[in-house]
Amino acid sequence: MVLLPPIIFEAAFTLQRMTFFKNILVILSLAFIGGVYSAIFVSGLMWLFTRFLPYKLTMVESLVYGSLISSTDPVTILAMLPSSVDKKLYMLIFGESALNDAVAIILYRFFTELADPTVPLGFSALLTSALSSIAVFVGSFAVGVVVALAFALLTKYVKMPDGSVYELAMLMIFAYMSYLMAELFHLTGIVSIFFCGSAMSHYAYNNLSE
Question: Which residues form a coiled coil (predicted)?
Answer without folding.
Answer: none
